[in-house]
Amino acid sequence: MPSYVIVGASRGIGYQFLKTLSTNPSNIIIGLARTPSAVRAKVTADTLPNVHILHGDLTDPASLITVAKEVSKLTGGAVDHLIINGAYLSEQTMFMKPGDFVGKETQFLDELNASMHTNVAGALYSVNAFIPLLKSSAIKKVVVVSSGMADPGIISVSEIAESIPYAMSKAAANILVAKYAVEYKKDGIIFLALSPGYVQTRAEDPDNVPPELAAAQAHLTEQFRKYEPSVKGPITPEESVEMQLKVIEGITMEQSGEFLSHLGTKRWL
Ligand SMILES: NC(=O)c1ccc[n+]([C@@H]2O[C@H](COP(=O)([O-])OP(=O)(O)OC[C@H]3O[C@@H](n4cnc5c(N)ncnc54)[C@H](OP(=O)(O)O)[C@@H]3O)[C@@H](O)[C@H]2O)c1
Fold it and tell me: From CA 140, how far away is CA 49, in angstroms rounded?
């Protein structure tokens, strides 16, 4: 029974991993969340089989070490796939360009620190907590959900000057993945930084997107079209997770440390 631990599984892409993986009854799926009770209620309402929800916070290394012990009991001492999905999205700075921080230097530093704390340090805490269980697996795969926004090429072509602390933290997470790949090559652990694509997770009801969000997404879609003219808008979490799981399944030790997209390439859209 292959096991999957999803760190940051309460909603969006993380929750979709639970939903998609639970369609295969042979999977053991463990979702970590900051508020497990709410997520457990959702899992029960959605009647997802083989899904366990435990407490884990990316910014709290002790919580990850504790939960790894609980996970070990559920999986028989090994973890096959560790997927670090949760992230601090720095909503305050989502529409700010570098020059907008004149006079707002403290805000820049605070948001950079928060982004690096969750998205980079949190990934390191998670991997370190689960390394002993990954070593005991025959599959040994670690995925850090990154973002195409960490690629200078798409930033330049799409002319996206905003969302700096977030994009910088994802670029730093990609470096962390490359470093881990080097350290644990001898143990056969495969690491991947994986962009999920442009995904509709911000709207509660994707068929009824609030006007302000719809306008922001329409603008982003226009920018993305400069990079990939066929982009119509965000894809669904279902589509993204299905594609990500295919990439995860196919990744080999030769590719360990790479930064790839849901397409399995370096095309981000
Ligand atoms: N959607 C996109 O288009 C897109 C594009 C590129 C990359 N991504 C990446 O995909 C991943 C998921 O994004 P999403 O769109 O699904 O975002 P989302 O719907 O806003 O979900 C963010 C998730 O991160 C969790 N989280 C935040 N801080 C955490 C912490 N300290 N510890 C544990 N979990 C924490 C949240 O949990 P709470 O409920 O507790 O807040 C939530 O489950 C992120 O890494 C994001 O950067 C998304």
Answer: 23
CA of 87 to the centre of ligand 1 (A): 4
What pLDDT is attached to residue 226?
98
Question: Strand pairing of 28-33 and 3-7?
Answer: parallel
Give pLDDT tens digits for 5-25: 999 999 999 999 999 999 999
Q: Indicate which residue's Cα is closest to atom 6 of ligand 1.
A: 147
Tokens linked to 259: 């930064």
Verify whether ligand 1 is closer than 6 Å to residue 125 (CB atom).
no
Out of 10, 63, 90, 147, the active site residue is 147
Annotated active-site residue 170? The verdict is yes
Say what the pLDDT of residue 164 is. 98
The residue assigned the tokens 């066929």 is: 230
Answer whether 221 contacts ligand 1 (Cβ < 6 A): no
User: Could you please report the per-residue DSSP string of 91-112?
Assistant: GGGTT--GGGGTT-HHHHHHHH
Packing angle of the helix pair 164-183, 122-135 (nearest 10 deg): 30
Tell me how far the alpha carbon of residue 214 lies from the centroid of ligand 1, in angstroms: 19
pLDDT (mean) for 143-152: 98
> Where residue 203 falls among pLDDT bands split at 50, 70, 90?
confident
Domain boundaries, the chain: 3-209+236-261
Mean pLDDT (the chain) is 97
- For the stretch 73-98, pLDDT in tens is 999 999 999 999 999 999 999 999 99
Relative to the CA of 89, which ligand 1 atom is closest? 47
pLDDT score of 208 more than 90: no
CATH pick for 3-209+236-261 out of 3.40.50.720, 3.10.310.70, 3.30.720.200, 3.10.150.10: 3.40.50.720
